[in-house]
Amino acid sequence: MNENRLSPRHDWTLEQARELYEQALPELLFQSQAIHREFHDPCEVQVCSLLSIKTGGCAEDCAYCPQSAHYETGVEREPLMAVDQVLDAAKDASENGASRFCMGAAWREVSDGEDFEKVLQMVEGVRELGMEACCTLGMITPQQASRLADAGLSAYNHNLDTGPGFYDKIITTRTYQDRLETIRNVREAGITVCSGGIIGMGEAIADRLEMLCVLAGLEPHPESVPINALMAIEGTPLEQQEPIDAIEMVRTIACARILMPRSMVRLSAGRVDMTTEAQALCFLAGANSIFAGETLLTAANPSENEDEKLLASLGMRPARGSATPVNNES
Ligand code: SAM
Ligand code: DTB
Ligand code: SF4
C-alpha cells in the first residue's frame, strides 16, 4: 500500500468522501479493511463502560436527547451521583472486562464548584483502578480542561453530532463553533479527543460526510470517533424518525475508518436495534470499540451476556489495557 494513503490527511473534501461512500459495498469494505488492518488488530474490540453520573434536566434543546428539559420523555432529573457510588460502578465494569470508563453528565456546560470538584475525584478514582477515564460534561473552558487533565482524565467526549449545514435543525441552544471550541480546549489541555455524531436524524448523506470531513480536518484526528445510530425516543422531536438502514451505518463507519485510520471508531448507541449480522458488518467495516452494559446513559443497550456471545461467535475479543492511541498521528 502506498505511504500516501496511510498518512493522516486533514484535507478530505465532501466530493472525495462521497466517492468513497457511494462505491459498491465490496469495494468500500475492501478499502476500509485494508486501512483498518494497518493500524489495528481486526479481532480486538475496545469495551467501554458508560455511566450517567448526572441524569436529566439539561438546559440544551438537542432534538434527539431524552435528557433535555425541553421535552417530556419520562427521564427524571437527578442530582450528581456520590463519588463512592461511581467508583463502585467503575470497579464492577473493570471486573466485567471494560478497559475504559465513561462518565456522562446532562449539563450544558461545566460550572466550577462542588460538583466539578466531585467529578475530579471520580476521574482520579477511575484512574487508580487502572482504567482509561473519559468524561462528557458539555462545554468546558481551558481552565476546566486543564484541571481534568491534572486529575488524569484520558479522554473527553464532545460530539459534533452532524454536519454544519444540518446542525441548526437539531440544536439551537449552542453553536457548531461552541462545540469546536470545547474540542480545542480539550486538545490543548493534552486530553485525548473523543468526537463523533449521530446518523439517522433525517440528515442527507452529505451532512454525515461533512461531519466526517470536519472531524478528519482536526489536527490531530480525534483519538475516538463514536458513531451513534439515532435512538428515536418518545417525547423528543425526533420520536417519529425511521430507523437508519444498517448498510448506511456500515458505509458511514467504513468512511470514518478510511478518513481517520488510526482512530478508535466506536459503534455506539443503537446496537440494541441492530442484528448481530449488522453489527458484524460494522466491525468488518472498521468499528473497533463498543459501549457495553444494559444501559447507555438512559437508553437500552445489549446485555454483557449478549455481547460476550456476539464477540465469541465472531472469534473477536475485548482489548485488554489501554487501546486508545496516545498520539494519534505519530
Ligand atoms: N451533555 C453532554 C453533551 O451533550 O456533550 C454529554 C452527554 S450527551 C447525552 C452525549 C452524546 O450522546 C450526544 O452528543 C449524542 O451524540 C449522543 N446521544 C444522545 N441521545 C442520543 C440518542 N437518542 N440517540 C443516539 N445518540 C444520542
Ligand atoms: C456517545 O457518542 N454516545 C454515548 C456517549 N457518547 C456518551 C451516549 C449515547 C446516549 C444514548 C441515549 C441515552 O442513553 O440516553
Ligand atoms: Fe443536554 Fe447533552 Fe442531551 Fe444535549 S445531548 S440535551 S447537552 S445531555
Calculate Rg over CA atoms: 18 Å
How far apart lie the N and C ends? 18 Å
Largest sheet: 10 strands, parallel
Count every beta strand, where a strand is a DSSP E run of 2 or more residues. Answer: 10
CATH topology: TIM Barrel
The helix/strand series, from N terminus to C terminus, equals HHHEHEHEHEHEEHEHEHEHE
* CATH top level assignment: Alpha Beta
Q: Which superfamily, in CATH terms, is the homologous superfamily?
A: Aldolase class I
SSE class: alpha/beta
Please identify, by name, the CATH architecture: Alpha-Beta Barrel
Overall geometry: globular
Tally of separate domains: 1
How many helices in DSSP terms?
A: 11
Q: Can you describe this structure?
A:
By secondary structure, the chain is α/β, with parallel strands linked by helices. It has one domain (10-316): TIM Barrel (Alpha-Beta Barrel). It is built from 11 helices and 10 strands. It has helices spanning 3-6, 14-21, 25-39, 83-95, 114-128, 142-150, 176-188, 205-217, 246-259, 276-285, 304-314, and strands at residues 44-54, 100-105, 132-136, 155-157, 192-194, 197-199, 224-229, 264-267, 289-292, 317-318. Strands 1, 2, 3, 4, 5, 6, 7, 8, 9 and 10 form a 10-stranded parallel sheet that branches. Helix 3 crosses helix 9 and helix 4 (83-95) runs parallel beside helix 5 (114-128). The protein is globular and about 55 Å long. The model has no long low-confidence stretch (mean pLDDT 94).
